[in-house]
Specification:
Number of helices: 8
Order of helices and strands: EEHHHEHEEHEHEEHEH
Strand order of the largest sheet: 7-8-6-5-4-3-2-1-9
Largest sheet: 9 strands, mixed
Helix content: 25-40%
Shape: globular
Strand content: 25-35%
Distance between the termini: 34 Å
Number of strands: 9
Radius of gyration: 17 Å
Structural class: alpha+beta
């Protein structure tokens, strides 16, 4: 099962990635009531109970690696619980059983005030670097709704090339083959990222003194 990241925190400059836990579900569920986000992510609204079930299945799913994207500045100040500084999520699907080195990447910056400020870009780079280093990914794909120009533009800045357009689903597929050169670039872009354990970080102060 994809539990490899269940204790992993990746702390970057703007964003911190943490595993998707049940504590994040209510906020996530709130986001997904938005018709705009349903359209952009091509998803149906779920009940809160279904959302909890979904979180559990994602956690145990061997083909899916999910991180919740937090605002580093707010979160590292420790003044704020995860759920109060959530800005989105980033996913890597290992969908091709024939090819375990292919990862389909998805990024959602759900909080409108955080869009267009480099949060999605850093989260995507961090997830790609994690995929290359920890999951053996050598090719990334992103499938994006044709009307989502901001997202298409962002992936192109990250060296993805448009490889297909599906006019039925109105969706563009972009791809990046991780050559040695791309790998070096990716690791350079993310060499400021610190990897930490999630459990230790979440213990309230004073617990360890007993």
């Amino acid at each position: 099962a994809m539990k490899i990241n269940q204790n992993t925190v990746l702390q970057g400059q703007r964003v911190t990635l943490v595993p998707y836990t049940s504590a994040h579900v209510p906020r996530y569920h709130e986001w997904m009531q938005s018709e705009e986000l349903q359209r952009l992510t091509a998803s149906e609204p779920l009940s809160l109970e279904q959302e909890y079930e979904m979180q559990r299945s994602w956690r145990d799913d061997a083909d899916k690696c999910t991180f919740i994207v937090l605002d580093t500045e707010r979160w590292s100040g420790q003044a704020c619980a995860d759920e109060d500084c959530m800005v989105g999520d980033v996913n890597l699907f290992l969908t091709d059983t024939e090819d375990p080195t292919l990862g389909e990447i998805e990024i959602m910056i759900a909080e409108p005030s955080y869009r267009g400020r480099g949060f999605g870009k850093e989260a995507t780079l961090m997830m790609m670097s994690y995929g290359v280093r920890n999951l053996g990914i050598t090719t990334f794909e992103a499938k994006i709704g044709q009307e989502n120009e901001a997202s298409i533009c962002m992936f192109k800045k990250l060296h993805f090339k448009e490889v297909a357009v599906n006019s039925v689903f109105q969706e563009v597929t972009l791809r990046l083959d991780v050559s040695d050169q791309e790998r070096r670039w990716l690791l350079e872009q993310t060499d400021h990222v610190e990897e930490k354990g999630y459990v230790e970080l979440k213990l309230p102060a004073g617990v360890l003194e007993t």
